[in-house]
Amino acid sequence: MAIDTNIELTDGGDPSAFLIEPPRTRTKRTGRKSRTNFEMLAWLFMRLSGIVLVFLVLGHLIIQLLLDGGVSKISFAFVAGRWASPFWQFWDLLMLWLAMLHGANGMRTVINDYAERETTRFWLKVLLVTATVFTVLLGTLVIFTFDPTIS
Amino acid sequence: MPAGTLYRGREGMWSWVAHRVTGVLIFFFLFAHVLDTALVRVSPNAYNSVIATYKTWPVNLMEYGLTAAILFHALNGLRVIAVDFWAKGPKYQRQMLWSVVTLWVLLMAGAFYPILRVTLRTWFG
Questions:
Q1: Residues B80-85, mean pLDDT to the nearest whole number
Q2: With left for phi above 0 and alpha for psi between -120 and 50, is residue A93 left, alpha or beta?
Q3: Phi-psi region for residue A19, left (φ > 0), alpha (ψ -120 to 50) or beta?
Q4: Given its phi and psi angles, is residue A3 left (phi above 0), alpha (psi -120 to 50 degrees) or beta?
Q5: Closest Cα partner for B116 from B63, B43, B48?
Q6: Which residues numbered 20-79 in B keep a CB inside 8 Å of some CB on A?
Q7: How many whole angstroms separate alpha carbon A60 and alpha carbon B34?
Q8: Domains, chain A, ordered by start
Q9: Which of A108, B4, B40, B50 would you call most buried, defined as having the most Cβ atoms within 10 angstroms of its Cβ?
């Protein structure tokens, strides 16, 4: 898209109309009360959880898909054997929470980037939060209430 | 093409695009994966019958694809962290991307047989 270069920016107009305010400048629309550093904390969380997830998820893939015959050995008995150990229960619980929150925050960024209408953004985020809370709670419940003797 | 869909191109932009696409793919798989694992609370049979689909060759190919997506996202994520926190990160971001791609190709080659055993046995006996 070509930019129209014929516009004379200062032709009789108010030059301050073209001023771009520095980021983080407080304006009348800035909330009076404490502004949190939510976006900075989200940014930091992505990096910290990312480092932990590299180990948790790659370890998970190696165990489930590569070792001992790969995917063909996975069964209810295999899951029961692993969740008999609190170590693997904790591994899976931590992986579930970090991966879901990391993924949900990534999806939030994607929604913010591509959904332009305010109502669309709102409902997509409602859907995202609902799906995320449901999945995290379901997974947590399954890990904590797992019963190897169920039939 | 609508305005604003192409940024500056080259390694920086395309690694960002790949990071975003793989991230969304992994997130959608994660939903399905928590749901299929939740079947262990229903019955061993329910769980085993759904896991049986994971052992068919079309899904097995997708598992290799999922591994490819996760591995790229993980390695490139470490690169992003290096760009953000290492003083020389931005200067070497391009070299780091090609290191990521090289490592990714090597690890995917190494995972080829172990992950695709089911498919290879179905196709070639």
A1: 95
A2: alpha
A3: beta
A4: beta
A5: B63
A6: 20, 23-24, 26-27, 30-31, 34-35, 37-38, 40-41, 43-44, 47-48, 51, 54-55, 60, 63, 67, 70-71, 74, 77-78
A7: 14
A8: 37-145 (1.20.1300.10)
A9: B40
- The letter for the amino acid at B64 is Y
What global pTM score does this model have? 0.84
CB A142 within 8 A of CB B41: yes
| H, E, C per residue of chain A | CCCCCCCCCCCCCCHHHHCCCCCCCCCCCCCCCCCCCHHHHHHHHHHHHHHHHHHHHHHHHHHHHHCCCHHHHCCHHHHHHHHCCHHHHHHHHHHHHHHHHHHHHHHHHHHHHHCCCHHHHHHHHHHHHHHHHHHHHHHHHHHHHCCCCCC
- The per-residue pLDDT for A20 is 72
ipTM: 0.90
* Residues A142-149, mean pLDDT to the nearest whole number: 92
Six token digits for residue B51: 């896991």
CA quadruple B14, B15, B20, B26: dihedral sign: positive
Q: How far apart are CA A89 and CA A16, in angstroms?
A: 60
Is the CB of B81 less than 8 angstroms away from the CB of A72? Answer: no
Residues 6+ apart with CB under 8 A from A126: none
Tens digit of each residue's pLDDT (9 = 90 or more) over A76-129: 999 999 999 999 999 999 999 999 999 999 999 999 999 989 999 999 999 999
* Length of chain A counted residue by residue: 151
For chain B, which domains are there?
Answer: 10-124 (1.20.1300.10)
Quote the CA–CA distance of B103 and B107 in Å, as a whole number: 6
